[in-house]
UniProtKB/TrEMBL annotation:
InterPro entries: Tscrpt_reg_Rrf2, WH-like_DNA-bd_sf, WH_DNA-bd_sf. PROSITE patterns: HTH_RRF2_2. This is Rrf2 family transcriptional regulator. SUPFAM superfamilies: Winged helix' DNA-binding domain. It comes from the Bacteria.
Length: 139
C-alpha cells in the first residue's frame, strides 16, 4: 500500500498474501480502528495507509491487532496436581514471559519504514536474479 498512489482493494492484497479477502478486511478493519489505514468505498475504493511509516512499529501493529499471543507453546496443564509439573510450569512461565518481552521490545524497534526499505531491496535483488536467469536462457 505504501508504494501505491491509489487505494488497494482487499482482493488484491489477499491474492498477494495468499489468503481470503475476508481475512484481509478483518485485519485492516482493526488497523483502521487505530487510524493506521483508511478505507474508501465504491468504484476506485480500497485501502490506503494513514500513518507515518517512520513512526509506526511492529509493536504498534501487534497492539492494533489485539496483542495476540506471540508464543504458541505453553503448559500442558495449567493447574497440575503434580509438584514436579508445578515447578516446571513456573519455570516455563517465567521463560515464556521473558521471551515475549524480548520479542515485544524488538517489535518496538522495527518501523514500517524499515520493512518497506527491506522489501524494496529484496524486490530489486529478485528482479536482478530474474534478469540474469533470463539472459542465461537466451544464450
Amino acid at each position: 500500500m505504501a508504494a501505491s498512489e491509489y487505494p488497494v482493494k482487499s482482493e488484491i492484497l489477499a491474492r498477494v498474501m495468499q489468503t481470503n479477502p475476508v481475512v484481509i478486511r478483518r485485519i485492516l478493519g482493526r488497523l483502521r480502528d487505530c487510524d493506521l489505514v483508511r478505507s474508501e468505498k465504491g468504484h476506485g475504493g480500497g485501502w490506503t495507509l494513514a500513518c507515518n511509516l517512520e513512526v509506526v512499529t511492529l509493536r504498534d501493529i501487534h497492539v492494533a491487532l489485539g496483542a495476540p499471543g506471540l508464543i504458541a507453546i505453553g503448559n500442558r496443564n495449567e493447574t497440575p496436581s503434580c509438584l514436579v509439573e508445578k515447578a516446571v510450569n513456573a519455570a516455563l512461565n517465567d521463560t515464556f514471559k521473558e521471551a515475549e518481552a524480548l520479542l515485544l521490545d524488538r517489535f518496538g524497534r522495527v518501523t514500517l519504514a524499515t520493512l518497506s526499505t527491506e522489501f524494496h531491496a529484496g524486490m530489486l535483488r529478485h528482479r536482478g536474479r530474474n534478469r540474469q536467469e533470463h539472459a542465461h536462457e537466451e544464450r
